Protein 1
Amino acid sequence: MAIANATIRAVNALAARWAGEIRADGNSVFSAAGVWPLLAFLADGAGGAARAELADALGVPADQAAGAARELLAGMGAARGLDTALGLWTKRTLELREPWAAGLPAEAHGVLTADPGADRAALDAWAARRTGGLVEAMPVDVTDRTELVLASALALRTRWLRPFQAGGPLDTPHWPEGDVAALTRESGVLDRIGVADTPDGHVTELKVLGDNALDVHLLLGEQQMTPGQVLGAGVGLLARRHPVLPGSRLPYGAAGPGVRVERERSLTPDPPTLKVTAPAFRVTADHDLLERHELFGLTTARDQRHGHFPGISGTLPLAIGSAGQSAVARFGATGFEAGVVTAFGVVGAAGVPRLPWLVTTVRARFDRPFGFLAVHRHSRLVLAAGWVADPERLPEYPDDLEDREDFEDRAYSEDF
């Protein structure tokens, strides 16, 4: 993935700021990598205060934004397991400035028919096709005033190098309503886990490696920490801003949030083991980006009383009419998948017997709300991030014996 470090830092910085807006009492998932290139193309065509605000949100100068966006999209598109797409739809009557239009792939350009119903169906079909059905609708308003829609799609899938085992319920007081579907795994690589010392508190990071260099980092902070602090710490760890004590060097006893290191007796001289328990989860979220207009540099651009994009069209004043992102992420026994569509609508204006050996076990339990980052391993680009406050539940166990046997045969046999 050939992307400039400055661009990766800018995208990850936006992810960290966005994480600060996430509430702790519900699930969420979002992708700064999905919105950043669209903001960059808008900045390239913006003028005045809107251009300055967009550049500030991007973290790069406006005259460099489009080039950085093209590089980002090309780099992500070349990564295994990651599919990206860019879409541009305009009314036939909207005349685009050639320099701006030439910066977008020609095959990305479609037409708005001025029939909102037909346009909505076409845009929804594009979103579903580009995410393999994970996102079924384009997160943007389409009206007869919509002159232009600019959208991106991102779909990532990875299978774990070492799968989890699907087990029974996760015993935890933090999710009292219903049984949480537990995933367990053992590994001899203790350093897949570490405890970071951050300004806001300690954070436990578990790296779950995918077979195509797309990994997921599970992040459990101290109980008083907010989602923004936990996810921000995860982004800081990617930039190596916080000291980390790896699993092989953790002290005995309570070693960090959700982590204990124990010495246990065994019949055999087993090597140290990392034992992980975490919930399966599926999280979805729809974000109205204009509700967070300051975060995305859209404060001026949303003012429909004036035009803000002279570099996009010289014949019609344009403003942002709507902006949204729909995202879904699923973490299961065999892998992880996520789909994101971002769009801008532009309008005119367990007693133990005595055993001879002592072995070391690091136990990690993600048994209360936690964060996650989907990361490209080599570039450290955050592709998706989220918060799990309500993980997947186990289905109810049937009372009838025949139904129960069928239930056990089917339990956890389905892959995504």
Protein 2
Amino acid sequence: MIRAYKFLMRPTVRQDQALSEMLRDHCCLYNGALQERRDAYRHVSKTSVMYAMQSAQLKDIRALDPERQGRWSFSSQQATLRRLDKAFAAFFRRLKAGEAPGYPRFRGVNWFDTVDFPKDGDGCRWDSTPHTPVTRVRFQGVGHVKVNQHRPVAGKVKTVSVKREGRKWFVVLTVEQTQPDPLPATGSVVGIDVGSANFLADSNGSFAPNPRYGRKASAKLEAAQQALSRYPRRKATDRTANHQRAVEKVAKLHGKVRRQRLDHAHKTALTLVREHDVIAHEDLKIRNMSKAPAPKPDPDNRGAFLPNGAAAKAGLNRSIADAGWGVFLAILHAKAESAGREVIAVDPRNTSRRCPECGHTAQENRPTQEKFHCVSCGHSAHADTVGAINVLRAGLVRREAQPA
């Protein structure tokens, strides 16, 4: 089992400068490799440059530029080239599937915030000595950096990454662990229905309120973004001190909202995993749910468009993003795997329109967002609770149908 640990680093002033230079030079390598691929395809008879060809050039690049490229780990530079190769693989996959291609773009210094080291001990070294007062991690070209290790690392460290968030630096460890002992069985099964009014409702009739961290911080975010908009767009190296402070304030507010969502998702998922053996949820396509509506051209007025509900859909999209369903479900699956619990994703169609008493399915069964009233048998309940009950039943049916 693979698990990740994220710790805050406390570099000195010189180490902070060296880490920034490491990101800058890896960003230059990424952009240079991207430019080579673009030029080769456009000007050399549509020739495709692959990772193996660019990785073979690293030795010459390091020899030609020892001050900026030769001082860093060879393996970390290979990881940066692999990142570009994955971006092109995703581009061709989307192109083949008929989706918006999203051609790989050049990265600015502020948009390149991670350097990966594929193996512990190759360009980096995690200090795993137990019972030491200070934990350190060593990076080639930077030195030994202090780490605020708030919990022990269990398992063998496989990869190490450096990540910058604002003015803070973090080290991310990928650790290989043995499968932990499962939690004691509780004999309980539950279905959950996530929503925007309530964060989730379960099949037992309980509700978890939606904290709406983004909406609570919207006033401060709006003021900070308005202050930032007064400055013209310019490169990070050309920003004034006031401009830089405005950028950091917006980033700080967004970072706080993100951490609050993660904390809420972790606590909610942990409660579910501790209390239930089987958890069923809807297999939501969140990206499709949050798409903007297609424009409606006006047939009688060329160049004009009819109302398509874009304003109302934008509000719903903000609520979906603020709830963070995707992050929560990913955390729920990870915690369930560690605890030996079972999580089942079911088809969400008609889960809130099907009567749990008689099975009648109709759009009229749900007259409002919260109310469910069956037009066939008269059963009334909260719509989210009805959806959670139907999700649980569908999950149990799918579980029994699965081969042993």
Protein 3
Amino acid sequence: MNTDTRKMILVTVLCGLGYMMYSVDRMTVSSAVELIAHDFNLDKGQTGILLSSFFFGFILFLFISGIIADKLSGKPVLILGLLMFSFATLLTGAAGSVTSLIFYRVLTGIGEGVFWPAASLEVANVTSERQRTTVMSLYWMGYPIGGFLGTWMGAMLGPIFGWRVVFFVAGGLGIVVAILYAVLVKNDRKPADLLAKQQVAKVPVRMLFSHLPIILMAVYYFALLAGWWIVLLWAPSYLMHVKNLSIGVAGTIASLLGLTGALGGFLLGRYCDKGDFARRRKILMGITIASGILMSAMVLNLSTPLVIVLVMLLGFLGYPITPLVLSFTAELVPPSLRGSAIGFVMNAGMAAGGISPIVAGYFAQSYTLQPVWLVAGIVIIFSSLILLGVKKLPITAANSTEIAPADAGYLMKH
């Protein structure tokens, strides 16, 4: 095994573990939200605000973090974000009031907004285009596995030991991963003359805002996640109140989203890397449509075994969408803009997370979650149509004096 392969494995594993910890944190809130709401006397509308508060900090730093990671290095930005959200996760478990709880959730979102683009950039930079979707899916598997653990622990351990314990565990483990990354992963050293050339000759970040494929990816991801966040954050409550299941059973079923999602991410990633860009786009469109249909079917009066099957299929097909989006985005821009592009697209998607859970909460308070759930599924289906316009186009650099060597190679290929 050569040095590059060893580094790719190390970066992928550690970034995946970091991703897992932030997923545990996020999904614990979802599965234990009934317990938290009971402790702080929250109604449905206030619960929706709590579920969305994380995103208020998250969306502020995704794009900024990507730009900083491009200009400096992914490693220090990744470690900073990982430490920030880990300490904020610990504080979430110690919150003594609604105000402090929401404040810590915002801080957690800031840390995770700093971490995610930097971690995705680190993984993208140690992979080639032919293996990127597979490796990105392996890194991303930390998210659905963390989602499974967080959802299950919040629903099963929360009623026994209290919801705070899971946050203490997730925060402590996140700090350990940050220390391991700082010690074990070494930054590649570049010749001084190459660094100087790249510093003055990069494609300007502002060109992202006129690059149609990236704009469309951002719009697609926003529309997709406007519906998908309702699945991720309201699924346990939906299963409890609409399907009349206990918190333990509802949390266990919802946790299956992450378990089957990890498997789907790996298998679909491998399948995508065996074809060209057009094939990968068709796969992304197909699983987007299928996810919307499966989500819409959840409003039907189904038996519990059929609900379990639908949830497992929804996780298998829906969860892998994000690593495909990450891989697509990295492929649509030159290397010097990868972090910025990933942050920009992720920012658009996460902005939906700051809106849709609140809307779902207030509609659920006045009506029920069923019509909200159905509308969200339809929005997911129609979001796939946006991908028809996503094509690999070169970024023109008419306003820059020179293209960096790495970017010149990109433009010659595409």
Protein 4
Amino acid sequence: MKRLIGARGADIADVLDRAKPDEAAAIVERLPLEDAVKAFDQPGIDCAPAILSRVPRALAADLLNAMSSDRTAEVFRSLDEPARGELLSAVAPDVRATIERLLHYPASSAASIMTTEFVAVPSDWTIAQVLDHIRMVERSRETVYSVYVVDPAENTLIQAVTLRRLLSGDPDAGVLSAAPERAPVTIEPLAGREEAMRLIAKYDLLAIPLVDEQGHIQGIVTVDDVIDAMVKQQTAQVQRFGGVEALDVPYLRLGFGAMIRKRAGWLCVLFVSEMLTASAMQGFEGELERAIVLTLFIPLIMSSGGNSGSQATSLIIRALALREVTLKDWWRVALREIPTGLTLGVCLGVIGIVRITLWQRLGFYNYGPHWQLVALTVGTALVGIVTFGSLTGSMLPFALRRLGFDPASASAPFVATLVDVTGLVIYFGVAAAILHGTLL
């Protein structure tokens, strides 16, 4: 316990996260309030809602009153009733008003991760007045990357001045003398988090102000908040891409029942989808009986189509996230993927033909008297399947985005399942055309 007093907030948060909820609550009760607040202000702490539900209401209120506004709102989003309502009524009125305002914004909006703790000054102040003001309010502000200059009468945003320019400016000069000539980069509160991430990355900002239609600054989104949001978003996308519902807590803290619920749904959907593969094979039962050699290459055919589709899906999902492509670019993507798939299919087809030829010539396996036609069938089928897989894998994210779903839901297993079924149809269709009159 003693080693936690005065420790870094991230280190205290790690200890609390590893402890059971009741044990973590006991630790928080014994910690100095300042140290507990440092831990609760960490974006990586996942046990905050559970702890706040277990500690005395007065202590919970003190913690929430002292935390940064964006982190407080995030904790409230994770709280369940009746704890949520009880804690909301226990915090200070100004904190309650801020929380209610932040909770009003959609969880996917930039405003959901903004902080209302920023420094704003009127445009008629001098640099000396601004620096004195920063010294007075610094401890009550999450960050002071920039000072936001507003119109004294309308309270609308005029400029953003970095702390560096203020420190190097003439103390007796007006604050606008330290402002850059260009207008500040801003974003609307209801814009998506991805847009805030894009602008901060594009303009190399430490913070971006959120300005409403009247020009009033509502809050700021800082680069550390963006990084935290990116980590969570990418984690959820990776999990969904693997055919798993996004986990709400770290892997080791997820209960057995929750683990089953997160994984069983998609697994059952994929399993049912794979049943179509069996149905497709049953449709070609006669061909399989007459040319049993074709079954040797079914795993090869299916995996090649699924792999090509997964590659295309991964590329397009990332391109959509980075806004390198938009929904209206679907036809341009299709025109790129068709020749790409054909070329990749030819590459794999040649490898497949060479492999069958070598095995036949070197005596590793006898594919029968018509082995050349079998090799041609495999090679030609690979061209068609890889092309179809690339085109399908690239178009599926566009379709899901158009329908309002997360493109990450076009997970690699889902694409592979879709391509498996159609791949079999293509494979046996090619076989019927090439092997007709010989094996078939």
